[in-house]
Amino acid sequence: KSCQKPVDKYIEYDPVIILINAILCKAQAYRHILFNTKINIHGKLFIFCLLCEAYLRWLQLQDSSQNTDPDDLIRYAKEWDFYRMFGIASLEQTSFLVGVFITLWRMRPEMLKAKSDFILLLKALLLSSYGKLLIIPAVIWEHDYTPLCLAFIKVFVLISNSQAIRVTLNLNRMLPWLAIFFGLVLENGVVYLFQKTGWDV
Length: 201
Prior knowledge:
It is found in: Endoplasmic reticulum membrane. The protein has 201 residues and is mostly helical. 70% of the residues lie in helices and 0% in strands.
């Protein structure tokens, strides 16, 4: 009111421009989306991203199995594999988030004092995982470079997560990457445990 100007320049921008700037991982766009919009799709987006990841794993599982047993054609058996992959993807994503939260809480406990701080950071991390939706075109337009595309998608999601942590807690660049590193360590630990117990991950 005192300066007669909007503090957030993105209030006047078209949603498409905001989306493009968010894809480019601009901090101001993330701030606008997290603090100045009322987006409540983080839960649905999280579930949809998990479904995409589970479908990709299920598809790779089907491609890797060379079993020609007629029982393999039974639909419910394949669905069971899909649900199993969904459960594994959920557990991995949860362990990643737990690793990020524990690291941030240990390094900067003053940043995560209230429950609302945890909820805001969780929403930011879930929304910033939107890059996993790129799995859909990568699977649809399958080609020789699909593994490389999936690696780029993973890197993009991690960069988005880093920006979300940085913007939400107003941190420098180093601490979010450290939190993401420990989140990945915990996630890969869960993958290793699954592989040791004989589950296909």
